[in-house]
């Protein structure tokens, strides 16, 4: 797949089914994440892969957070089912190192770039990915379960699998609304 075509025309697809990427395809996805821009070489990334039983463990972690907030049963049921919307979920964590010249924000941005790079690598190999977040990714119970420390943050849950439908058309956007010249 042509790189520019991928950049200009990628769409997210939420409907994802098996198979998930594995072997070389999965390794390529992780390696793409590891090519995210990285000021001072801090490598501020952790990628936690959930599949099979791992999806059940992720579900348990989210449910624990929802229960800790005394959430209504309907909310608990929703978070319980959430990880099963794809055969694989990669939780992407910004692992923040204290550094004079590289504030935490830059490290969060780097981890965000890693998410998009992994999404692109998935699409380039015939898979699909959907970047999800939600309030639970900021919850202490979830942070504890994933072993976050200090200023670490979860920047997203990247749902991965095989597309269950064709992507929607790319929205037309008027460049003049976004671009200015100084
Ligand atoms: C940091 C981040 C978090 C997101 N979280 C969610 C989410 O929880 N649920 C959701 O439906 N879309 C979420 N999105 C948006 C989708 O991943 C997707 O980009 C959006 O549906 C637009 O589709 P497109 O990528 O094809 O333009 C998030 C995007 C970003 C950048």
From TrEMBL:
Entry's Gene Ontology molecular function annotations: oxidoreductase activity
Obligatory cofactor(s): FMN
Record carries keyword Amino-acid biosynthesis: no
Enzyme class: oxidoreductase
Annotated CDD domains: YdjA-like
Lineage: superkingdom: Bacteria
EC number from the UniProt entry: 1.-.-.-
Keyword Cell cycle: no
InterPro entries xref list: NAD(P)H_nitroreductase, Nitroreductase, Nitroreductase-like, YdjA-like
Binding site for FMN: 10-12, 35, 39, 131-133
Cofactor note: Binds 1 FMN per subunit.
Ranges of residues in domain Nitroreductase: 8-161
Gene3D superfamilies given in the database record: NADH Oxidase
Keywords: Flavoprotein, FMN, NAD, NADP, Oxidoreductase
Family: Belongs to the nitroreductase family.
Name by which UniProt lists this protein: Putative NAD(P)H nitroreductase
């Amino acid at each position: 797949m042509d790189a520019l075509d991928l950049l200009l025309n990628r769409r997210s697809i939420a409907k994802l089914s098996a198979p998930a990427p594995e072997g070389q395809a999965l390794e390529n996805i992780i390696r793409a994440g590891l090519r995210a821009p990285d000021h001072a070489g801090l490598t501020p990334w952790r990628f936690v892969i959930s599949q099979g039983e791992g999806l059940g463990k992720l579900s348990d972690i989210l449910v624990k957070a929802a229960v800790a907030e005394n959430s209504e049963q309907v909310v608990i049921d929703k978070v319980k089912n959430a990880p099963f919307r794809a055969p694989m979920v990669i939780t992407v964590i910004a692992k923040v190192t204290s550094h004079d010249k590289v504030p935490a924000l830059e490290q969060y941005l780097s981890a965000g770039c890693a998410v998009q790079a992994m999404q692109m690598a998935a699409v380039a190999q015939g898979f699909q990915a959907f970047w999800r977040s939600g309030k639970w990714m900021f919850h202490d119970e979830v942070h504890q379960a994933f072993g976050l420390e200090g200023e670490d943050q979860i920047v997203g849950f990247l749902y991965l699998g095989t597309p269950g439908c064709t992507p929607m058309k790319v929205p037309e956007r008027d460049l003049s609304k976004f671009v200015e010249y100084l």
